[in-house]
Amino acid sequence: MEYTRKLADKLSVEQVKIELLNTAYGNGDTFLAKLDPRTLFLWYLFFGIVPWFVHDTGVLIGMCLFMVITTYMAKISPLIIFILCLGLLGQGGYLLVVSLLFGGDWSTMLPLLVLTVKLSTISLASITVFCSMNPDKLSDGLLKIKVPGQVSFSIAYGYRMLPTLLEEYHHVFQSFRLRGKAPEKHGFLYIRSIAYFVKIAMLSFYPLLLSTAKRARTTVEALETKGSMYGFNHPEVKKLKLASLSMKRQDYLFLIGSAVYVTGLFILI
Amino acid sequence: MTAHIEIKNVTFQYPGAEQPVLNNVNLSMEKGDFIAILGGNGSGKSTLCKLLNGLIPHYYVGDFSGEVTVNGYNTYEHKVADLSKHVGYVYQDFENQIVSPRVLEDASFAPLHYGFADFHERGLKALKLVGLEEQQDAFIWQLSGGQKHLLALASVLSLNPDIIIMDEPVAQLDPHHAKDIYDILTELNQVHGKTIIVIEHHTEFVASYAKKVVLMEQGNIHFSLPVAEALNQVDTLHRHHIYPPQVTQAAREKGVEGRLPITLEEGYSLFSNAEPKEVTDIPFGEQKEAIVSFENVNFAYKTITREKRQVLHEIDCTIHEGDYIALVGNNGAGKSSFMRLMTGLVKASVGEVLVDGENTKDVPPEYLAEKVTYIHQNPDQMFIEDCVEKDVAFFMKSRKIKDYQSKVETLLEQFELTDLADRDSRLLSGGQQRRASLAIGVGMNPEIMLLDEPTANLDIATRKHITRILDGLKNQLKTVVIATHDMQLACEFANRIIVMHEGRMIHDGDRASVFQNYRLLEKAGLVPPQIFSLTKSLGWKEPAYTVNEFIERYQREEVDNGVYA
Amino acid sequence: MTTVNKRYTLTQSQKMMVFILSMSLYGLSNMITELVPSVNLGPIELSIEYFAFIPLTLCILFHPLYAAIGASLGEIIFGELMLGQFGGFGELEKFIAFSLAMYVAGTFVRDPRNKMQVGIAAMLGVIIHQLISVTVDILKVWVGVEELEAVPGLAESVVVVEGFSFLNDVLFSGILFALLPTLYLVPRLYGKIEPLLGMKPRDRNDRYSLAEIIGPRLIVIGFLLAAAAFIFEYLSEAGFNVEWEADFLDMFGDWFIWVSIGVALLVVITTIIVMVKKKSKTDVTKKQEDKIPS
């Protein structure tokens, strides 16, 4: 339990902010980040779905290796990989433990491993793709594939507001901490302290609900004057916005390269 | 010349409100004017401005009657979208007006969404007008508060509107940056022929920049006059809790005949140059016990690019009991970091900060909170409960202090909050919020109180009120540190002024040593109170710091010499 | 009647405000819950699943549709995209399930001051959401593992693990992070937060009942959304596999049919109840209208 506390100490708000914004904007110079969003969507369309239906271990491992390489190329922040691994290990581990209880044996391991490889392939594919697109690119891409304008606006707005909101939350949380009193005894398994902090974490949303409501009002008024209601409904605005998107040689090369690799996997293995 | 803006018989009532917020308003403004709107809280200033870009009546579905014409467009017949090409509005909470993560993106947001093919150029041009072109690729969170304000202005300028409205352009800025923003507005007005409308509490800015003043009172236009004439109506302004520039106040008190001066330049010639009565400066009390000490402290934080940014350099400082310190310097000079180090919420990267002999690195912030209270600049961040009373009681209640109810009551009384006890703190006016946040701070029964900009965003009358309350706190606390841009507050409240500049303490002394040092003021970007500059130009060896002091000393001078101004 | 209805019609921008409010707050909370490590007591995971009370509160206080969609989108943007764990297609299922659950919970409440209604709505929201996501999770393992039944114990364990997580989420997260905080927040915010957005609070006289607001049109949309959630998962995971083994398909088919029958039944019953209620009401109003001329 001690590790939780240490981790929580390390994960200061500032640190989290830095990591997050780096995830969003820090990878602008990788090869993948220079590709057109449509290329990445197309690529993901394949690697996000097909592994589900592949039951050949060799091909799966081949795909997974490919994903590991692309993930490396995309320079993903370590925090994200850490979170991903925790999730995957957790899920696989449970299933294993419980199926052992139900009379399974170690042979259960193999299909579970295969499942984990599948899940990792798919997760790595989405991480590669979505971390290689900075928010601007992603929203442009989404607009291009006919997702409503509100969604791409929301993405941009989310990134705009995240640091502000996080900071405000942090301030309120601190106010609770400084003015309240943490339980003097940690209780069995720190249960008291955990309960105390979770309670504060929730209570902090009450002030935030009100202040965000004030914000939302100004923002929407400003949006009105900035013509976004007009822009969401006019195709020529969309065209203007997406004028910079273009498929280049590297896009085609990347797609062809991936196709050759996958075909090779199926033929050779 | 035909009127640019014409408001005729407008009455407006917000949905659910009991009284109309605008009551049969008639007003016309001409093209190329520079207008300042004055008025107390709730006099309808912001509502008046929202009439002009059509947010009222299209956006606020209240009871609207009358007619508003802007640039020949009737606002009732045209949509907000059409009108915003003519009227640009910069909100008081301009931060929420910025909707894109990057600077240029936000500046070109409006032209893009209106379908202008040259949206990019328009955005760039607007950024150039406000001097932000170098930051065009920056992210919003990398900007300072002042830069964000300029960006909000640029985003509005990108549509090239004829009329620009700014709600409190300088509320959160240091004097130096405040002047910058007014200079930009003046350029827009004089070079580009734009009509500028500002809502402003600082009459000294109004006097130097505006051409015309509109005074509002409870939903009515009280007057609309040229600036000199308007600021000369000292009694009327006083009745509306508005304080004319210090020069004007001084001249008025001295019974200057005819038109009162409204700027420093006008003031010089009117007052005699004779030596004033000598003052004995407030003596430094004998040094008492040290409470806080900074020993060679450096402080740095990681920026987004994972580089360390050093905010404080080699700070050495001791704070004694009985010190009432004003911490002054530009935005970004490191004032907040200096104070936050004492709360233990952030830790020094090099050196030690000792509070009552204990190293802040070794004790949790919760422990320090019982000794050191930090009052946020934005009172919103102090409010965690759903009414004022509970907020004040929170600390005492969680520590199970006996008989806390009666203590809360006393505090509510002291800060004049008894009537507001069961209201939600967030829904109070600016001054009430400030008082509530102070009550919360004092309720924690600290030895040291740290205040971040306690008078920002307040109108001058409320500001005076808060200054008075702060003065009353001196005997409840061992020491107080105030970070502020408000030099009048610094002069009236502090017995020690620390000047910070780019993360270093460049001066530590009494007010005379700060304001008499021309180079220091220049370097730190400080602007002394107007009355100080006036008396200094008049050749006073010991210039006056407040209008009251001026009146007292000038008067004695007159009596002594029999000279009348 | 018309005036009453008119009073609760929100303008386009008010809808946008609700949407932005819900999106940023639930998004933020999601990011926080994602970052807080979970506590494992053996196989039991006591994690902060989600702060469902935020969208629940907003759905109850404001227009449920915009609050629900805003919250789901907020989760995707803050909790997934920004943390770099955007799951691509899987997010669609989450989006639909969560929006639907929150929306239904919001429409259930007629009077935000009625604690009983608020409490039931909060639990209802969590149960619907968990039901859908547990079903989808089970389907995923079923599809993802070849010859599932050949592996001893796996099939049962999947159901047990998911079943347990369902109970855990509903009883633990549901009560701690949905029921209690919603009951705390709704009365506190009611009448206070609405004016900040320039709206009037919902009140009993607004006749904001399930039948009138949902109407057959939205029931149909709800059904389509639910169906889409399943069909989507089904198609994307099972649709094109040519090497599918006959017995596996049988087993899978049975399971799927059982689930879809259950859901369909539920939806049909709700529709019928709502329709009948609505009809009787319109009948009454019709009769009244008939009476007036005579």
Topology (elements, then pairings):
The complex is a heterotrimer of chains A (269), B (565) and C (294).
Chain A: H1 2-10, H2 13-25, H3 37-47, H4 50-53, H5 57-73, H6 78-101, H7 109-132, H8 135-144, H9 149-179, H10 191-203, H11 205-225, H12 228-232, H13 235-241, H14 249-268
Chain B: E1 5-13, E2 22-29, E3 34-38, H1 45-52, H2 55-58, E4 63-70, E5 73-74, H3 80-83, E6 87-90, H4 103-107, H5 109-113, H6 119-130, H7 145-157, E7 163-167, H8 175-190, E8 195-199, H9 203-209, E9 212-217, E10 220-226, H10 227-232, H11 234-239, H12 246-253, H13 264-268, E11 290-302, E12 308-320, E13 324-328, H14 335-343, E14 350-355, E15 358-359, H15 365-368, E16 372-375, H16 388-398, H17 404-414, H18 430-443, E17 448-452, H19 460-473, E18 479-483, H20 487-493, E19 496-501, E20 504-509, H21 511-515, H22 518-524, H23 530-537, H24 547-561
Helix pairs in contact in B: 6-7, 12-24, 16-17, 16-18, 17-18, 18-19
Chain C: H1 2-7, H2 12-35, E1 39-41, E2 44-46, H3 53-61, H4 64-81, H5 90-108, H6 115-144, H7 154-189, H8 210-238, H9 246-291
Antiparallel strand pairs in C: 1-2
State the main characteristics.
heterotrimer; A: 269 residues; mainly alpha; 2 domains; 14 helices; 0% strand; flat; disordered N terminus; B: 565 residues; alpha/beta; Rossmann fold; 3 domains; six-stranded mixed β-sheet; 20 strands; disordered C terminus; Energy-coupling factor transport system permease protein (chain A); ABC/ECF_trnsptr_transmembrane (chain A); membrane (chain A)
How much of the sequence lies in strands of chain A comes to: under 5%
Please tell me the overall pLDDT of chain C. Answer: 69
Report the end-to-end length of chain A measured between terminal Cα atoms.
45 Å
Content-based structural category of chain A: mainly alpha
Helix and strand sequence of chain C: HHEEHHHHHHH
SSE order of chain A, one letter for each helix or strand: HHHHHHHHHHHHHH
Largest interface: A-C, 84 and 74 residues
Largest sheet of chain A: none
Which structural category do the helix and sheet elements of chain C fall into? mainly alpha
Helix count of chain C equals 9
Biggest sheet details of chain C: 2 strands, antiparallel
Pfam families (chain B): ABC_tran (PF00005)
Keywords (chain B): ATP-binding, Cell membrane, Membrane, Nucleotide-binding, Translocase, Transport
Subcellular location (chain B): Cell membrane
Membrane topology (chain B): Peripheral membrane protein
